[in-house]
Write a structure and sequence with these properties.
Helices cover about 0% and strands about 55% of the residues. The protein is an all-beta fold. The chain has one domain.
């Protein structure tokens, strides 16, 4: 097993991080909306983002 280190900014509230198959995936959060994490077989399969506009 190979170990890899990553540095992430814990002060940035506009990012979501997912680890999948040993890779760090960075996802930008929308200003308004919802993000659903879809899991298949105990692993993250995809992120579904619904963006909303505040009037």
């Amino acid at each position: 097993m190979v170990k890899t280190n990553a540095v992430i900014d814990l002060t940035n509230n506009k990012k979501l991080y997912v680890i999948k198959d040993g890779r760090l995936i960075e996802h930008d959060l929308p200003d308004y909306g919802e993000i659903s994490v879809v899991v298949l077989g105990g692993k993250v399969d995809r992120l579904e983002t619904t963006v909303k506009t505040k009037l």
